Amino acid sequence: MKKSIIHFFVLVLLITVSTDAWAQKLITKTGNIKFQASTPSNEEVAAENKSVSAVLEPSTGDFAALVLIKGFRFKVALMEEHFNENYMESEKFSKATLKGKMEDFDLSKVTSTAKNFTLKGDLTLHGVTKPITVTVKVSKAANGVMAMGSFEVKPEDYGIEIPNLVRKKIADKIKVNYNFLLVK
Amino acid sequence: MKRKRTAFVLAALLIVAAAGIYFYYGFLFKGARDIASEKADFNITATKLLEAYNEDPKKADVLYLNKTIEITGAVTKETDSVITLENTVFCLFTQKIKEKHLDHKVSVKGKCIGYDELFQEVKLDQCTLNQPHN
């Protein structure tokens, strides 16, 4: 019992400390991620998530993003169900994260015209973590920066099996577009 | 004898057609979940929900993930389409929120999509606002 009380206080302390430390960080809780896995002349396979969380530490270029898989919305309900139950197994792996560092990031060099930065980090998806390099277009916005771009992901790299029956309907490389308005 | 046979064939055909229609509309083109009209599985306060996730995220996921839940708490932050309750529950609305609710106690119904470790918040989407209580 005593131990659990101590744990609770440590947790509270951790929460307050971490929120304090983020005072200068640029954040968003309503980032946007869209992915496109359609193949030519087949039904559109695409979804959008409007509640992606991301944090950027401007002094170092450290970047972290977290997306909840259940928050992806498809046009077709059955597709959303298959995505969650068969492919992403979102009951077991409820989130995907990207943690990394933007090389040579300097907030003072960011202007209203987009500048490319290279983000090197680890992408965790479906319980599998792999290194990834992403080019991020960063531009100045009111009270912060706009970070956007796209990258490609192969489902089999992350242990996502696609049955032969639907193999032709889902692209080998899935295009992921992201759009974050990071503010103070 | 013949009449009986035609009746039988007709009945069988009807059953097959009905099954086909059921499969087509009920399965292939099943409508999306309408969270706004679903009855909430749980009705708890924002602080209780976060406590559950802090204690045991796996257990909380089993209980709440993908479920329609109703959360009560004071509004600590609001933007066009997002209401944050007690700084702990993030509620994304499908439509823009017209009225102002800051500092008022409200009850929000939505689908729990999981726990956000970056900001220590539980996230809900497809939210709707129930009648505000004072």
CATH 4th-level superfamily of the largest domain in chain B? Nucleic acid-binding proteins
Runs of chain B with pLDDT <50, length 5+? none
Q: Write down the CATH class of chain A.
A: Mainly Beta
Q: Whole-number radius of gyration of chain B? A: 22 Å
| Strands of chain A, count | 9
What is the number of helices of chain B?
A: 3
How helix-rich are the residues of chain A, as a percent range?
10-25%
The domain tally of chain B reads: 2
Main sheet summary of chain A: 8 strands, antiparallel, barrel
Catalogue the unreliable spans of chain A. none
* Series of H and E elements of chain A: HEEEEHEEEEHE
Summarize model confidence as the mean pLDDT of chain A.
89
In sequence order, what are the helices and strands of chain B, one letter per element?
Answer: HEHHEEEEE
Distance between the termini of chain B: 75 Å
The structural class of chain B is alpha/beta
Going by CATH, the architecture of the largest domain in chain B would be Beta Barrel
Cross-sheet strand order for the largest sheet of chain A = 1-2-3-5-6-7-8-9
> What percentage of amino acids of chain B are in beta strands?
25-35%
CATH topology of chain A: Lipocalin
When the domains of chain A are counted, the total is 1
Keywords (chain A): Signal
Pfam families (chain A): YceI (PF04264)
InterPro entries (chain A): Lipid/polyisoprenoid-bd_YceI, TTHA0802/YceI-like_sf
Protein name (chain A): YceI family protein
